[in-house]
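subagent[fold] <- orchestrator: predict structure for attached chain, return tokens only, no commentary.
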Amino acid sequence: MPNWPVASMGTMIVGLDVHALVVPPAPAPIPVPLPHAGPIFLWSTPTFPAINVFVNSTPACSVGALGYSVHPPVGVPVNPPNTTYWTRYLTNVAMGLTLMGLTIFANMAIAAIASLLPSNKASEAFVKDVTGIDTSDTMAFLNTAMASFAALTQWQTWVKLLMPPLPFPGSQGSVAVGSPTVSVNGGALAFIGPLLGTSCSDIPVVPNAHVLGFTNVTVGVSFSAMVRAIAVSTAQAGVQAGLKAGVEKMTQGGKGCGCK
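subagent[fold] -> orchestrator:
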């Protein structure tokens, strides 16, 4: 069983994003690849800013720990020019709250449909990891479905939701994959490695970034478990991307950096 290095605050997220930009003299927006490189310094765990677990004297990080950086300003984003920054902010808050609710209900629907199909223990476990819903029996389904709403009762969830959006050329990166067996303050312990992170991009390919850092603290996880964790992260990103596209279409919002 190979050992995977553990991520902590200050670990770098390095990725390549694609954003739709108007680059003169081109008259229409074109997809432009832009690098992202920045350290993790926010939301180390779901209980942030409380910090009580350390790795090499720095706060340990769970999946979702994030940081901000800046894209090279090579063009103009496609956001409508008459849409003010704060209007986009209020729209993003409403969209984020709607997206959270829709994601929970979508996960419940996916889990419910999956429970009706012939499956084995491995596929049931994969559906549970992707959706957070246990389909082993009716009571477990109801209990885990209700637990999915628990995040809405935590003040950290609302603080993160109400954080103002980062306008272009700002960028965001976070850890996308962590330990399936070890957690820190309710979040999966984040790992350092290639394609274990994500950075903001108009093309929802997750994970699309590397998590770079140095540590002598490791956790043993099999390659099969890591491949499964990456597949879960990709599936979750697909659900999020589909729902976000639908919400944006309904609200007629423009696409910007998406770094929220």
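orchestrator: received. Logging for downstream: Confidence is low (pLDDT under 50) at residues 80-85, 254-258. Residues 85-116 form the longest helix (32 residues).
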